[in-house]
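Self-study notes.
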Amino acid sequence: MDMKKRIHLELRNRTPSDVKELVLDNCRSNEGKIEGLTDEFEELEFLSTINVGLTTVAHLPKLNKLKKLELSDNRISGGLEVLAEKCPNLTHLNLSGNKIKDLSTIEPLKELGTLKSLDLFNCEVTNLNEYRDNVFKLLPQLTYLDGYDKDDKEAPDSDAEVYAEGLDDDEEDDDDDEEYDEDAAPGDEEEEEGEDEEEENEEEEEEDLSETMNCNKILNMYAALSKNTQCHVKFGGL
């Protein structure tokens, strides 16, 4: 699917000005250029064009509100100077898997004063001596390079943090449930009381049965004795 058609499908009957996120991954660019994207996407904050065969970003429209730009797994080797003009408020840029070989290619990014995170995984430039130190010197506004800061501390993953918080909430809910069970709800207490009453009734019935059996044994003994001694003993109602 070519990029123009993909953009049309992604709109889903919305106007370009209503779109804040646009994912065009794995579609086909025409001659390595961005097509179908216009200045009308004035509210766009996130754009992803992973593996679309781009060789240039020269045809990128003016996107003043764009903050995150995914350009990984393309064939871009230069021309990054247009980003400062087209996306002046960019904070995250992913150029992993492109044909960037030297520091001079990324030097124009120093004009992006708001750029905080840059990814260059699987680019030849990462093989240069003292690559990380030199990039941080070249782009002093950067906080994270390839996911780590100057002190090799990993960049926080906001999605992971939200997920962790969700797990913590679930654990707290489980603890609350356990405490609730220990306290026992009114309904549970009534059920337990009912069970206790049933057990008491059963015990009383067993005692009554035992007494009846004992009485029958006594009567049988008297009857046998009466026959042996030829004494007639009359028991009322028996």
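Second protein, same conventions, sequence then structure:
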Amino acid sequence: MNHSDHNKERLAEAKRQVKRIKLFYIHLVGYLVVVALVLLNFYIMDKGLHEKAITWVNTTTLVGWTIFIFIHYWTVFKGRFLFKKEWEDRKIKEYLNKNTEEETKMWE
């Protein structure tokens, strides 16, 4: 495998990962909208004949979707949590480079 094939393969994998992350965030937004609607439903629900059934459906929807969103998160991010060591190192380098650029621009 030559160098350009390796780069093309890495680019394709990076695009697939970005697409997976994008789909996860779309899934998360949909989940948050549904959670807000279910909570609103709990708030405005009247005491009545079907209260237990509606509560059961809403609760199982929340629990089930929460499990699925966690599984989706785990498959996309491979169990990584939000702030890994590499992320911290990259941000530190960005701020150091930013400060260095600002210092050089200030005296020019």
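Instructor comment on the second fold: The chain has a mean pLDDT of 83.
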